[in-house]
Write a structure and sequence with these properties.
By secondary structure, the chain is of the alpha+beta class. It is 53% helix and 20% strand. It has helices at 2-66, 69-75, 83-104, 140-148, 187-198, 208-214, 235-240, 253-256, 298-339, 341-350, 352-398, 404-432, 444-461, 481-502, 557-568, and strands at residues 109-115, 121-124, 152-157, 162-171, 177-185, 201-207, 223-225, 231-234, 262-266, 271-279, 286-295, 440-443, 465-470, 476-479, 508-515, 520-527, 572-577, 582-589. The strands form four sheets. A six-stranded antiparallel beta sheet has the order 7-8-6-11-10-9.
Length: 591
């Protein structure tokens, strides 16, 4: 029989713990996924914000310093001329803009580049000696503007530099199209702005095949091979902001080329990497990616919390299953004992003291089941509040509605209810410590309230009102907490069971504690559950006497209550029927 019970509980323990751990892991993975998505969206918004700043700046430069009457007048005939005359126009334009260009470089301007309508490079302010090359197959943005006579912007690799390019069409005042001009900013300028604005560690990767195809050979020294096989590092960014870690780097090329921003947690280095793929504004192919690296403890701490939660769950469930196992074994033993009672009366009398101790332990185990049920009721609402607060923090954070005041309110509520749960466990440990035989001075009013704390959830569920009439002065007794709990647990449990049978509507229990005389105190516990049958009222403290079916009652709780009060607490207990219920009287010596 015991072997079957053990196997049954081991099987249930395995199923429940496996299910619980699976739920924990799924929730952990979901939290990590949501956190990484939030990081991706956050960095993408930061990138777009900085990009928009440079877009606005380029428009300001174009409107105030480029698209003016003097510049247009110099440049307007460049595409019509050739040879020496074209060089004269180029030099005039260079001299006209040189001072402005040097001034604009302080605003992170990298390139000011004029192109003719046939995509010929006319003047590079950054490299005035390099001109005349055909950009048709090199600079898709230039070709787009010259073909469509429309403004375009975005990242693009060039012959010398890459950069964020803002290409504008140029017209005379008579709307004659004369070419285009590019205002561009370096990747390093963008990265530096993001670094100083958001305190981010960044690197920039550019497609290897794009660099090899477009950049002059002598300029390729500005690029460094990256761990991602199809990409170079932008050297200026690499040197200014070295990667957080270069040990055993992973290749994310395949994911980058899918074209969607993403974040990955590197468990070995405790780093979150966010990749923001960047597309050519004309061809829309992936040509570069911005990499944001951050040391992050959120996932690391969440993982540690998961491990702790799994360990605690295993431990607590083991304790709970052990207690239920002991209760089941005790129940089986008591049922067997009841069936054999007639044959063993003489033997049990001779072994009375030993059997009493055994019965007390079995009763303790039986009461633990009820106590666990009470604790479950006590925990239900605080756990619900904690879950609601945590969800509220998460939702408001995702919607950018979370304020410091709201956060304080949520966290204070979580701490308050977590403290309540901890207090419940401390009380639970105090009352189940059957090995603690130390007697001490206890205030009977305080410990009556502690016992009621365990029963209040059940009483509230059953609509049982508890009325307390305590003497204001503290009344002390000599006992241990286990004894006090056992006495009142039996009485309240029987009262609850009586209410379930009686069908009483206005259920109530009245508890009175007062000083009887200088040596004794009196406790009365009265209910309105209809009372005890007069035929059996004198037998309720007898061993094994019960009015319940043998599957749910053993008949030892009130018997052991009687023995604890008489033998351990040196007091008296008796019961009488009141007008509408039973009334227990307990007299105990005052310390």
């Amino acid at each position: 029989m015991i072997k079957k019970i053990i196997l049954k509980y081991l099987f249930l323990y395995f199923i429940i713990t496996t299910l619980l751990v699976t739920i924990y892991i799924i929730q952990f993975n979901k939290n990590v996924e949501n956190y990484l998505d939030n990081k991706t969206n956050q960095h993408l918004l930061e990138y777009k914000a900085i990009y928009d700043e440079y877009r606005v700046l380029s428009k300001l430069i174009f409107d105030t310093d480029i698209n003016d009457e003097k510049t247009i007048e110099i440049f307007k005939d460049a595409y019509k001329e050739s040879g020496a005359k074209k060089n004269i126009i180029r030099n005039r334009l260079l001299n006209h803009l040189k001072f402005k260009y040097e001034k604009l470089k302080s605003y992170n301007l990298k390139q000011l580049h004029f192109h003719l309508p046939d995509n010929e490079s006319f003047l590079r302010m950054h490299r005035p000696n390099k001109f005349g090359d055909d950009l048709t197959n090199i600079r898709s943005t230039v070709r787009y503007v010259n073909e469509n006579k429309k403004y375009i912007h975005g990242f693009e690799e060039g012959r010398i530099f890459n950069g964020y390019r803002f290409v504008y069409p140029l017209f005379t005042k008579d709307d004659e199209y004369i070419g285009s001009v590019e205002i561009s900013f370096s990747v390093l300028a963008m990265v530096e702005t993001m670094y100083h604005t958001y305190n981010l560690n960044l690197s920039f990767l550019i497609r290897k095949d794009v660099v090899d195809k477009k950049v002059f050979k002598e300029e390729r020294k500005n690029y460094i091979l990256s761990p991602n096989k199809d990409f170079y590092f932008e050297k200026s960014v690499y040197e200014a902001h070295p990667p957080l870690s270069t040990a055993n780097p992973k290749d994310y090329t395949t994911i980058i080329l899918k074209g969607e921003p993403f974040s990955i947690y590197d468990n070995s280095k405790n780093i979150i990497k966010t990749m923001i793929p960047i597309k050519n504004p004309v061809t829309h192919e992936i040509v570069a990616t911005l990499c944001v690296c951050q040391n992050d403890d959120f996932i690391y701490n969440d993982k540690n919390d998961l491990i702790s939660k799994i360990f605690i769950s295993y431990l607590l469930l083991a304790i709970v299953f052990y207690l239920f196992f002991k209760q089941t074994v005790a129940k089986e033993n008591l049922i067997k004992l009841n069936r054999e009672l007639d044959k063993r009366v003489t033997l049990e009398v001779n072994r009375g003291r030993k059997q009493d101790l055994h019965l007390f332990n079995q009763s303790k185990m039986a009461s633990l089941g009820k106590m666990m049920s009470n604790i479950a009721h006590q925990w239900r609402q605080p756990l619900s509040v904690i879950t609601t607060c945590a969800s509220g923090i998460k939702v408001q954070k995702e919607m950018n509605l979370l304020t410091n005041k709201d956060l304080d309110c949520f966290t204070n509520s979580i701490l308050e209810h977590a403290t309540y749960l901890s207090k419940t466990i401390d009380n639970f440990k105090e009352y189940i410590d059957v090995n603690n035989k130390d007697r001490r001075i206890l205030c009977i009013q305080e410990h009556m309230d502690k016992v009621l704390d365990f029963f209040n959830p059940i009483f509230q569920e059953k609509n049982i009102a508890v009325i307390k009439k305590y003497e204001e002065k503290k009344l002390n007794i000599s006992a241990n907490t286990s004894e006090v709990f056992e006495v009142f647990n039996a009485i309240f449990s029987n009262a609850k069971d009586a209410f379930e049978k009686s069908g009483t509507k206005n259920k109530k229990i009245v508890i009175t504690i007062k000083k009887k005389n200088d040596k004794k105190l009196l406790i009365t516990i009265k209910d309105n559950a209809g009372g005890i049958d007069e035929k059996i009222i004198d037998k309720i403290f007898d061993p094994y006497f019960t009015t319940k079916h043998e599957s749910i009652g053993t008949g030892i709780s009130l018997y052991l209550t009687y023995k604890v009060i008489h033998e351990n607490l040196k007091g008296e207990i008796f019961v009488k029927n009141n007008i509408d219920g039973a009334k227990f009287y307990i007299e105990l010596p005052i310390v």
